[in-house]
Write a structure and sequence with these properties.
13 strands
Length: 298
Amino acid sequence: MRIGILYGGSSPERDVSLNSGRAIIKACNDLGYQVLALDPRAGLESLIPELKNIDLVFNGLHGGDGENGVVSGFLDNLGVKYTGSDKNSSILCIDKHASKELVLKEQILTPDWISLSLEDKLIENNLKYPLVVKPNSEGSTIGLTIIKDSSKLTDAVNLARKFDKKILLESFIAGREITVTVVGDRAYPIIEIIPKHELYDYECKYIKGMTSYVCPAEIQKTLSSSIQSIALDIHNLLGCRHYSRVDFRLDKEGNPWFLEINTLPGMTETSLVPKSAATLGINFNSLIQKIIDEALKI
């Protein structure tokens, strides 16, 4: 079977995607597939001749068109099978405001937030600190700032708007950073993330030694099962398929607060999805095979 690995691209997360792609390419080679590396940096149309001979595309892109529905819609139009969520789910999940609204309607906890477009006026009197200021449609904490008072508000807003016309001002939830991987119809063990910085930022995510990970997280069994169930419910509610990663903050009272969902989570050696799978005895190659199997079910 011929598998095309989409990686790189032109989003701010290009470097991470290149690392993910290299790892996926190696795994697919190890698994015995015929592998074709596909970097759409020059435009998706340039890949059409190559895609005509592909049985499956493994989407290793992060952010941008890879995760916002453009690539999935493009592949759907070509009739090419691919890993990851479809166009409609991708559009919904990349939009933090829209996905939080839908989750909130199902009475799942998510931090209070204000959504601001360019034309919206910011009324500072309505804000309660600390706040998380972030782009509405970016990942890897790109453009994100935690602010404790109004003195940093303008800088935080300006930074976020460099990456998106729409931004979120979200209540900061004090507590533990946790994440849940979903593959197929199963939620994998919870990971607790303990960064050296106050914020689990880009450096902490992608540089070895900058973050400690505990998996399975040291959470009481009943609560852990409940959080995994909520993660799976969110995955299904937002129409995700094959795999995803759901991020939460766990407050001091043991309440999990949904932050966002990643439809194409990282697949580097420091990435969280492989770490969670490993605690179940699933090595990286086996994880890639499981995702491929999910995509081939359609």
